[in-house]
Design goal:
The complex is a heterodimer of chains A (330) and B (403). Chain A is of the alpha+beta class and 330 residues long. Chain A contains 10 helices and 11 strands. In chain B, a hairpin with a 2-residue loop joins strand 7 and strand 8. Classes of the chains: A alpha+beta (330), B alpha+beta (403). At the A-B interface, helix 2, strand 4, strand 8, strand 11 and helix 6 of A face helix 2, helix 7, strand 12, helix 10 and helix 12 of B.
């Protein structure tokens, strides 16, 4: 009987159905999308920030490189004019490790920008019997040096590495390396590591607040229309009571109705929301989103709470009034 | 008469209207607040990234020194507002406690404007007689804060041990004047680190639709001979705080100086900024859509539940135009009140978030406020338009009899 009433009540009034469904579906989708995107953004932002360059310098050589890293060798070469210049050997990984370095020409054997300017060499020319692939501008000491692919037999001067994790985790890595290799010194680039974490924390706090705001607005404004939809059914409730239904039966009917709507609305909304968050992640980071189940749970709970809160006042009011008076009002 | 009708309707049924006003305020507030944050977040994040440290290195011509007296020039040129801080350095090899070491002179107050995240065991140096020692050196020498160091023929007090991850770990930091005296170069500095707020030059690559290598060639040409560069690129350079632009501006101000952007610092910031901006823009759009839908729903509901009233008005002889005008004016009033309320809420929230998270609240452009308000009113009117048309079209008798 209850099932039939619920089914009839839901299907009978299509317009009311669409209003109520939208009232659940829209916030469910928005909350899922924003929550999933924001929960996922921290890892993605961290990867983005980690592209800013090495955060760990190891003085000496270790067998196993931590994370993305390049060994560096250092030698000197005598230019024809009698000036000594440093020759730095780097691995191919350097290209990913220092995305900020600017190369005019090709990666390979490169002459630092200041040195190249002084000598007047261009990419494609020869210097010290080497073919110059490119001119490298870093703004740092490499500008006065020649950079070549590393000779594996040459002694390693230091290792530059980009290690994921918080400052504490990077420091832990540094300590582990020092413990495993006596005589090796591992230095954490504190300025980079620490400001990175500070920025990440701030961004996530902002994103979190914004997500909360979006969720609150979408659920609250929808609660208003949901409350209006329930209030409009005063007559129906009055009629049911006049026919002998108990207040609890009416509440039960409403709970069953809302429950059915919630299940459908949240399921559809979560699906749409996850799609939306995938699109957001693709648009912002150019990467696939990782689905965080917590986002769907948050959306479901938010919708449930809001639906309940929206229905309580109008239902109590409808049940408090004598049915005859409500019915006569018309 | 008309005004009285509107006033009565708004005042007598104010509780009903309150829901609509609240919906408009919420929607507008969310959209306006996020828009304000979005407009300001680029600057906030970029200022935050500046705390990463210096991004322009100024040196003397051909490895020589620069006069200290020229230093104020770094903050006194066309792009002075982009300069967040700068610090001079003078390294000198000398004997410390009987061993040869690199002693670097700097001005500690300036130093703190370009570095952050240095871990100091002990304290920053304060007086000219103070020194700070790199962690790696300190370990070798077993030096601790409070110890005395013999630097050259002077006795300095070790205030702190610094861990930076950089070359400083093998150096002794002293006051600039001390290093100048040891090196016998009074009033000279070797290099200056500058922290500037810049637009990454990667943006130029997008504008020119060229790869990084070509852009590098263009930028090199800018340094050597700007007349050979396309005029629109020169113009772009002149009006954008690219690292090269600021470096050139510093070079012009300080004769003989060579200023170079530190690429790893200037270019990677762009990507981070872009991501943050993108995320904020999309979240803002979502909030605006959520707010707009909420306003739409609330306004539609407000007319639907007044169909009987509309029917009654029509039965009493009001023309369709009259009724429509009444409802629309009401919607506009609700839109304006709710919108204004929303602006206050939204901007307050944006400033609170900005102040709390980034220490400086974002500025609120008045044009943005006006635009948001107009959109709020427009959505309110749209929300009532459709149910209003239906209600007005219906025969009054049917509406009154209904239900």
């Amino acid at each position: 009987m209850l099932a039939r009433i619920v089914r009839a009540s839901i299907l009978h009034n299509r317009r009311r159905l669409s209003v109520a469904l939208a009232a659940i579906l829209v916030p469910a989708a928005l909350v899922t999308a924003v929550a999933n995107f924001v929960l996922d953004a921290r890892a993605k932002m961290h990867r983005e920030l980690r592209r800013r360059g090495p955060n760990l310098t190891i003085i000496g050589d270790v067998a196993e490189l931590p994370g993305l890293a390049t060994r560096r060798t250092r030698a000197t070469a005598l230019l024809p004019e009698g000036v000594e210049v440093p020759v730095i050997g780097i691995d191919a990984a350097a290209r990913q490790l220092y995305p900020g370095w600017r190369v005019e020409g090709e990666w390979g054997c490169m002459v630092g920008a200041r040195l190249a300017e002084r000598l007047g060499v261009r990419p494609g020319e020869r210097l010290l019997d080497r073919h110059i692939d490119g001119i490298l501008e870093t703004g740092e000491m490499e500008d006065d040096a020649i950079l070549v692919p590393r000779d594996p037999s040459a002694p390693v001067e230091r290792i530059d590495a980009s290690v994921p994790g918080t400052v504490e985790e990077v420091e832990e890595t540094a300590r582990r390396i020092e413990a495993a290799h006596p005589g090796v010194e591992a230095r954490v680039q504190r300025q980079l590591a620490e400001s990175e974490q500070a920025l990440l924390d701030k961004l996530m706090l902002t994103f979190g607040l914004v997500a909360f705001l979006v969720g609150a607005v979408s659920t609250l404004s929808r609660a208003l229309s949901l409350a209006a939809a329930v209030a409009q059914r005063r007559h129906e409730f009055a009629l049911l009571r006049a026919l002998g239904a108990a207040g609890r039966a009416i509440v039960g009917l409403l709970v069953a109705e809302m429950g059915a709507l919630l299940v459908v609305g949240v399921a559809l909304g979560a699906g749409i929301g996850l799609g939306l968050s995938a699109w957001l992640a693709q648009a912002v980071f150019g990467e696939d989103v990782t689905v965080r189940p917590f986002a769907v749970v948050a959306a479901a709970v938010a919708c449930m709470l809001v639906t309940a809160a929206a229905a309580i006042v109008p239902v109590r009011r409808a049940l408090a009034v004598e049915p005859a008076r409500v019915l006569k009002e018309e | 008469m008309f005004i009285r009708l509107v006033r009565e309707s708004l005042l007598v049924r104010w509780r009903r209207k309150l829901a609509a006003v609240a919906a408009v305020a919420l929607g507008t507030g969310a959209a306006a607040g996020l828009l304000a944050l979005f407009m300001g977040v680029g600057d906030l994040v970029s200022a935050e990234l500046r705390r990463y440290g210096a991004n322009i290195l100024v040196t003397g011509p051909g490895g020589t020194t620069l006069p200290e007296s020229e230093l104020p020039g770094i903050k006194d040129h066309f792009w002075k507002h982009q300069i967040a801080g700068f610090a001079p350095f003078l390294p000198v090899e000398t004997t410390v406690n009987g061993k040869t070491a690199t002693v670097v002179g700097t001005r500690v107050a300036d130093l703190r404007t370009v570095v952050s995240g240095w871990k100091i065991d002990g304290d920053w140096m304060r007086a000219p007689g103070d020194a700070m020692i790199g962690a790696s050196l300190a370990r070798d020498w077993n030096a601790r804060p409070g110890d005395r160091l013999r630097v050259g023929d002077r006795e300095l007090l070790v205030r702190g041990v610094v861990s930076t991850g950089g070359d400083e770990e093998r150096q002794v930091l002293v006051d600039l004047a001390v290093a100048q005296a040891i090196a016998g170069k009074p009033g000279r500095v070797k290099h200056i680190l500058v922290s500037a707020v810049v637009t990454p030059e990667a943006e130029l690559a997008r504008m020119l639709h060229k790869d990084d290598g070509t852009v590098a060639a263009v930028i090199r040409q800018m340094r050597i001979d700007p007349t050979k560069v396309r005029p629109e690129v020169v113009e772009r350079f002149a009006c954008t705080p690219y690292p090269t632009t600021i470096a050139l501006s510093i070079e012009q101000k300080i004769p003989g100086a060579r200023a170079r952007p530190i690429r790893q610092a200037t270019e990677t910031e762009g990507a981070v900024l872009e991501r943050v901006r993108g995320a904020f823009l999309l979240l803002t759009i979502l909030a605006a859509v959520a707010g707009g839908l909420g306003v739409l729903a609330a306004m539609t509901a407000s007319v639907v539940e007044r169909r009987k009233e509309i029917g009654l008005l029509k039965a009493l002889g009001a023309t369709d135009g009259r009724v429509a005008a009444l409802i629309l004016v009401e919607a506009a009033v609700i839109g304006v009140i709710g919108g204004l309320l929303g602006l206050v809420i939204g901007f307050t929230a944006a400033r609170a978030i900005g102040a709390h998270v980034f220490a400086t609240p974002p500025p609120i452009p008045p044009a943005l406020a006006l635009l948001t308000l107009l959109v709020a009113v427009a959505i309110s009117l749209t929300g009532v338009a459709w149910p209003l048309r239906e209600a007005v079209r219906m025969e009054p008798k049917r509406i009154l009899h209904e239900a």
